[in-house]
Structure formats: structure tokens, C-alpha cells
Amino acid sequence: MSHAQLCAPPARPAEGRAANRWGTLARVERGPDEADAPRSAESLLSDVARGDDSAFAVLYDTLGRGVFGTCLGVLRDPDHAAEVAQEVWVEVWRTAARFDAGRGSARTWTLTLAHRRAVDRVRAVQAQRDRDQRVLDESTEREFDVVADEVESALEQVRVRDCLGTLTPTQKQAVVLAYYGGRTYREVAAELTAPLPTVKTRIRDGLLRLRDCLGVTS
Amino acid sequence: MSDSFSAADDVRSLLGAYALDAVDPDERAAVERLIATDPSAAAELAQLTAVAATLGDAVAGEPPAALRTSVLAAITDVPQLGPLAGPARLRPGAPAGTGPLGSPAAVDAPDASTAVAPEVTHLAARRRPSRTRWLAVAAALVVGAAVPTALAVQQAQRANQAEQQQQALADLLTDPSAVVVHGDVTGGGAATAILTDDRALFSATGLPDPGDGKAYQLWVVDADGAASAGVLADDAGTVRQLADDFSTGDALAITIEPAGGSTQPTTTPLVVLTTT
Asked: Where are the domains of chain A?
């Protein structure tokens, strides 16, 4: 029997993704001071680095929404977000010793990892599609308007939503497409038919404006 | 690095895009060199990274309850890495002047040893193995497969039930090259396989009786053809088999063969599982 014959029945039919991209849009207001819970994420993470799995469980309870939200923001699909979140948490466990509290918050460290993994996933899926040369599914070819609308409606923190509103439309477009859309700035530039330096500047200026609006220090 | 990123100002203009994981590998490396030598750039990046984290944090989404269980179970046999050696640690998000300068290789965050940063945009094509890669790749495949049970959480739980193969599974799941693939079996049943660089575990459930004097047989298929990976012991429609002669790019397939097995497939395969 030939190889071609063996490959005859396609094991992977055309994709179809859940229409419910965001899941439940819980609008639970959460203050910015979650880290002031009984134990700081930094302290927990340092125990995690020593193999303390009960500290890890508390850390999960502290940052679990943030990690999942970060993944969901990029991936849209709750199932995929859960998969990547799991991957992120295993990585947090594994690399906790490499967190340095002197160089940023544990929350930022963890969510940075989550975003990177989520973006990896988006690009892996994209690469898979490209390899398959499939017609791009409209539902995942996320135009800016779609990304922006979904993001807006899913942001539970009014403060962040309001601050995004202080960006110029072009800054916001670039930041949203890059962060939530998982695009590189080159892809953003291509999509918006804007020059590369312009897009770099929009992203950076947009983030700096967000920083000022949110009062983020580091 | 290429000349186009040699000027500090050019690189500095990438800080925002870097903080959003929106740069390509060359640019990422250039930024990391910059922040290793420029405290003010490092300070700015620290702030931009914190802003970016806020964007993700603000998304509403209650993680599924099963995720917590699954995460806590998953870490039990995952070894932890030690701190990065020496004073070379510096992550994006690092405030200025908080440490001596590191080599570019040690600069990635949060984990230089498994950093996928330089390969991000080419992830599917070439990516250094990481412990968690199988999840990402499996998910990419699952997306393509439209398998309803896409949750890796469920995969893990299902895997845990495979007691006979539990150790083999544990080994496979921690194999940095492992990917999980699914497929429906023609005639009934569902197949799942964990594929690594050098072996594969095939399992299927809900298989109909192959018929008197018949058996399911597993094949490792490469460009040269099919090689038997054994006749499958059928336990009420559930089969599991480890294929040792598997390598990257090969496919697994099952066919119905005479009970003693065949040297080559004699019937049309009922399922083919591959990563490519």
C-alpha cells in the first residue's frame, strides 16, 4: 500500500471554531491592589521558586484571572485560552526562580509570560494555516474593527478602557492590533498601510500615554 | 546584527513594539542588547511592559474551574529551574541600573533557557524545544482538526486514565518534542496520539469489533511507506500502543488486518495522525 493511499482519509477536517469567543463577560470590578492580598504575589512566587506547591496554588488564585484574561484577550477562544494558560502556569512553576522582584512586579512578569505564550499560539496557528494553504477563515482573520470591538466589550476594567480612549485613534489602533491581535508591528503597518517608523512610534507613544493615564510606574 | 538595527535610536523606537511582543527575532535581540547597556531604555521598557500587562489583566474572563485542578496536577512532576547563574539576569521590565549587564543570551524574560523569543515568528517551522511546546503545537493541530474536545486539560485528564501507559505517558508528555494529535476513526471511534521526535504513543477508544479473525494494526508511515508498529490488543474497543520507530514527520495509521498482522497494510487506513 502506498503512502498516498495511507494518507487518503483526512484526519483533520476543516476547522471550525466555537462562535462564543469571549465566554462569559464577567464584569467584576477589581481594584488595582490585588497584590495587597494577604500575601503578595512576589512573596508567593519566591516560595514557589523553592518548590512550595501550596504557595503556587495561592499564586494561581491571585493571578489566575489575569493570566486567563491575557490569554483570552489574544486568543478569543476560551478553550484555547485555557490551554495556553495551563502552559503558562507550568512555565511559571518551572521558572519561578528566575523572577527577580527587584526588576518588576510578579504580576507583570507572569502576565508578560502569558502574553508571549498567547502570541506564540496565534502565530503558530497562523503558520499552520499558511502551511495548509487554507483559505483563511474569516472569523480568525481579525480586522482591526473586530479586534477593537471585542476588546472594548471584554475589558472589565473601566480604567483601562477609559485610558485606551485617551489615545489617538491611530495609536489605539496600533496598540490594540499588536497587543490583542498578536500582530507584529510590521503586520500592523501592512494592515494599516502605514510606514513602519510611524507604526513603531504610534505603539510606543500610545503605551507611554497609557502609562501616564494609568499611573503605571513599572 | 544587521545594520538596520545598529543605531540606538532605531532600537529605542522599538521598545513599545517589544513590550507588546510585536517585534521580529532580530529586533528582539537588538532591544535586549540595548536594555543591557542603556539604563534609561531599560527603565522605559519596564514601564511599557507593565502597561502591556495591564492590558491583558483588564480582559474579563473567569478561568474554567477545571483549569486550576489541571494546573495543580500538571506541576507535580515538573522539575524547576534554578536561578540564572551569575549577575547576568535582566528581564524586559527591568528598571534602570538594577544590575550588571548581562550577555544577550541571558537577557530574555522570563526564562532564557527556554526562551522562544528569537523564533517567535517562525515558531511552527523552527522553534527550540521547550517543555510546554507540545501544548502549543497540539492546540494548533487541534484547531486545524476541529476536534470538539480541544482542551488540553481534557487531554491530560484522559491521559491520566491510561494507567497501563501512565509512565510512558508521563515520559512522553515531558518530552520537549511531544505533540498531541486527534482524529476520528473511520467506522467509529476516536484516536489520540502523542508524537515525539523518536517515539509515539497511539491510543483509540470506541473502536468497533474488527471482526472475526481480524485485528487492528498500527503503522508508522514515512515517505518510504508503512512499517508495522504491532497488532493492537483490543480491550473492548480501546487500544494503546507505543511505537518506538517513530521520528519527526512520520504519521501513525491503523488498518484492519488478519489477526496475526500483516507486513504491509492490506486495507485502507481508518485514521492517520500526523503533525504535518
From this structure: 36-138, 142-218
Which CATH number describes the domain made up of A142-218?
1.10.10.10
Q: What is the ipTM of this complex?
A: 0.77
CA distance B156 to chain A (A): 11
Fold assignment, A36-138: Rna Polymerase Sigma Factor; Chain: A (1.10.1740)
Q: Read off the amino acid at residue B21.
A: D
Asked whether A90 and B152 are in contact (CB, 8 A), the reply is no
With contacts defined as CB-CB under 8 Å, which chain B residues touch A61? 68
Q: Is B19 close to A207, i.e. CB distance below 8 A?
A: yes
Neighbours of A185 (CB within 10 A): 30
Structure pTM? Answer: 0.55
Query: Alpha-carbon distance B47 to B93, whole Å?
Result: 7
Give the tens place of pLDDT for each residue, B51-67: 999 999 888 788 999 99
CB contact under 8 Å between B121 and A123, yes or no, is yes
User: How are the residues of chain A apportioned to helix, strand and coil, as percentages rounded to the nearest 5?
Assistant: 65, 0, 35
Alpha carbons within 13 A on the beta-carbon side of A180: 33
